[in-house]
Amino acid sequence: MATPRSVVVVGGGLAGLMTTLKLAEAGVNVKLFSIVPVKRSHSVCAQGGINGAVNLRGEGDSPYLHFEDTITGGDFLNHQPPVMRMAERAPAMIYLLDRMGVPFNRTSEGLLSFRRFGGTLKHRTAHAGATTGQQLLYALDEQVRRYEAGNKVQKFEGYEFVGLIKDDNGVCRGVIAQNLRTMAIESFPADAVVIATGGNGVIFGRSTNSIINTGAAVSICYQQGAHYGNPEMVQIHPTAIPGEDKCRLMSESVRGEGGRIWTPRDPHDERHPTSIPEKDRWYFCEELDPVYGNLLSRDIVSFAIYCVCRIGKGIKGRQQVYLDITHLHNSRGGPYSRDQINDKLEGVLEIYEKFMREDPIDNPMRIYPAVHYTMGGLWVDYEKGHGENTLDLDSPKNQMTNVPGLYASGEADYQYHGANRLGANALLSCLTGGELTAQGVMAYLKNLPAPSEDVPSHVVEAARRARQEEYDKLKQSNGKENPYALHAELADIMWNNCGIWRKQDDLLKAREDLNALGERVHQCGLVDASGWANQAIPFTRAMMHMVEQSKAIVGGAILRDESRGAHFKMDTPNRDDEKWLVTTKATWRPGQPEFDFSERIDCTYIAPRARKYKINQNMIVKEIMGESALAGSNNG
Hints:
Blueprint: E1 6-10, H1 14-25, E2 29-34, E3 50-51, H2 63-73, H3 80-100, E4 114-116, E5 123-126, H4 132-149, E6 153-157, E7 159-166, E8 172-179, E9 185-189, E10 192-195, H5 216-223, E11 228-229, E12 234-241, E13 248-249, H6 253-256, E14 260-264, E15 281-282, H7 284-288, H8 298-310, E16 321-324, H9 338-356, E17 365-374, E18 377-378, E19 406-408, H10 425-446, H11 457-475, H12 483-497, H13 504-520, H14 536-559, H15 577-580, E20 585-587, E21 594-596, H16 617-625, H17 627-631
Helix pairs in contact: 1-4, 1-10, 2-3, 3-10, 5-14, 8-16, 12-13, 12-14, 13-14
C-alpha cells in the first residue's frame, strides 16, 4: 500500500485554510502551522467584502469586466492568465462560501447583496456586514475541523516557521519550526510545503496589519533561494486612523456605501464639520474624477490625500482629512436609519467609535493613509491552458516558486495584483489562489519519486541544527542594541523614504541606512533570558529577516525608473511600458540582493493602455500642488 503523501502548510489564514481544505479533500495528510490560533489569523481583520461578477443587479457585469478592472487597477503589471482564472472562479467561490454558511448580507428579496468598491463602476462585492474576513475565516476553519477530526489535518498553533528543509538537489522537503511555548526547535519532513503567511506591514511600523505580519516567513524563503517578485509594490490604504501602536483600517466599504472624502477649503475653519456648508468643503476626489469620485483605486486616493496634507490643506493643517457618512442618516436627509447603516458598516464604525471616542454617524471620521498590503511576494509560476482553459490545472507549476516543492499562496505570493490591488480582491485571491495551490501540489505529488520518509535523516537534522545554532547564538547575545528600538528606526527609514512619495535620493539614503541597520541588528543585547514563551529572541530574529526584505523593497524601488500603481517616483513620474512592463525578481545575496528584469508581463488578453481613470498621480501633483512640484522645486 502506497504511503500517504504529507504536505506542510504554513499560515492559518484564508489562503492556508483553503489550501489545507482542498488537499485534505483529496486525501493528503496536512500539517497546518500557525504562529497564532488559526481563528486569530490576520484574515480575520478583513472588513469590506469579496469580489465576484455575479451580476444580480443586471448591470451587465461579467468575469471579463472583473478581470479588466483588476488588470487596470494593477496598472498592467499582473500576468493576465492567472488573473483571468481568478475572475472566472469568483462567482462559484462566493456561492461555495454561501453554502458553507457565511452570513452574507442579503437584499429584501433574499438575494445576495453586493456593494461597489474602488476601481469599478459595478456592484460586485459580496459582504457580511463589515466583518467579512472574520465570517469567511470561521466558515473555512469549520470545514477544516471536519478533516482534523478525521486525522487528515494536524494543527500546530503557536509554532513559528524558521526555515526550510532542502535536500542535496535543492528540493524543498519540509520545514523547521519553533514551538513558541517551550521554545523547542523541531523538524517536520514533508513532500511539499506551502507558504501562506500574509504580508509584511510591520516593516513600516504602524500599519493596518497585525503585529504578527513581519513578513519573516517570506524573507526566510527568499534567503534560502526563492525569488521575491515585485518587492517594491506596497499598497497604502487611503483611510485609516493612526494609533500609538498601529493603524486601524477604515474599510473601503465606507466609501462603497456612499462615504465622501473632504477637507474644509479653509483648513483652519473652526466650525464643527457638520456645520460647514457644501460650498466651503473641498471634495477633492470628486473634483479630480467625477466618474469614479471617492472610489478611485487605492493608490490614487491615498496619493491625493497625501498631496492635500503635504501642502497644509488637511484638517487644521494636520495630516488628516474627513471620511464622511453623516449625510447618509435620514436625520440629515439621507436614505438610511441608524440600524440600516449599522447593518452594512457596524464592524468598521465600532472600531472608530472605540478608539476615537466619537460617533461616526454624527461626526465625520478623521483619517489618513497607512501601509496596508504588499502586492509583492514570493515569485510563483503558472501553466497556460489550451483552448478555452485559462490555465492547465493539471500542472505542478501552478503557484510553485523557483524552489521545487515550495509553493506560495495569498498575500505571500506576488501573482495577482500587479502594482496595485483592487479592494475586495484580497480575500478572493486567497481563496482562488489557495484552491489553485492545492491543485498544483497534487500534480506535483503525482510525479514525486520518493516520499518524505526517504529524505536522509542527516539532511533533516542539519537543517534543524542550523536553526538551533542561530537561536542559541541570539540567546547568548550581549550586544548594546535594543531590537525594539531598531524596529522603530526601520519603520522610520521605510515610511519616510519608501512610502507614498518616493525620490531616488531618499531611496539611496534608505539603502545606506538599511546596510548599517543590517549590521547593528546582529549586535542586540538579550532583552529576555526566559526559556519559556520568550518573545524577545523571536522578535530579534524577525528583525533580521525584516531588514533583508526591506533591502529588496528599497532596491526594487531604486531600479524601477518609472511610476506605476503604488510605486510613484518623483524623478520618473511617468509609466514606461517599453522598458518596465516586467516583473522585478529579487534574489538574495549577502549584502545586497540581485535583481532580474527579464520576465515580460504576459498580456494575453488586453494590450497595455492608459488606465481608465481621469486622473493619475502625475496629474494629481499638478492639480493640487502645481506644476512646480512636479518639476522638482517643491519635492523636498
